[in-house]
Amino acid sequence: MTPFNLPIQIRWSDIDQNRHLRHSAYYDYGAMARMIFLSEHGITTQKLDEMKIGPILFREEAIFKREITLDDKITLDVELVKAAKDFSRWSLRHNFFKQDGSLAANVTVDGAWIDLEKRKLAIPSEFVQGIFNEFPRAATFEWIIREEKKA
Predict the structure, then answer these.
(1) Are 27 and 60 in contact (CB under 8 A)?
(2) Is the pLDDT of residue 80 over 70?
(3) Euclidean distance between CA atoms 122 and 69, whole angstroms
(4) Are 111 and 91 in contact (CB under 8 A)?
C-alpha cells in the first residue's frame, strides 16, 4: 500500500497559551488521520456497523521533538509498527512532519478490535485483515508473538 500523508491546517483553537500546538491536539489529529485512512481503504463507519466491531485503544503516547505553531504547515502519516498475525492487536504510529521535512512529533497507539454486541475483544474479518496486511509499515515493523496459555 502506498504511504498515507495528510496535510493538516493548524486551527487557532488548537494553540495553547504558549502559542504552540496544545498537547491533546496531537491525539485529535492522529485519530482523524487514522479514521480517514481506514475509511479511504474501505473500513468505513458503515462497514464497522455491519461487522459489529470497532477499534479500541489501550495506549496513546506522544513524543514531542519540535514546536508546532499556528503558522506551521504540517503533514501527518500513519504506519503499522506492530501487529498480531490475525491483526486482532496492532500498534500504529503517526509522524508529524514540518514543511521543511523535520520530524516534529510522533504519536503511537496500541489497539485492538471490540465486538460491539459481546463487548469483548474480537478477531477482525478477513476483509479487515486484508486491509491491515497492506498497511504502510514502519521500517522497524515487527509481528506480535503471543505465547500460548498453559492449562
Answers:
(1) yes
(2) yes
(3) 40
(4) yes
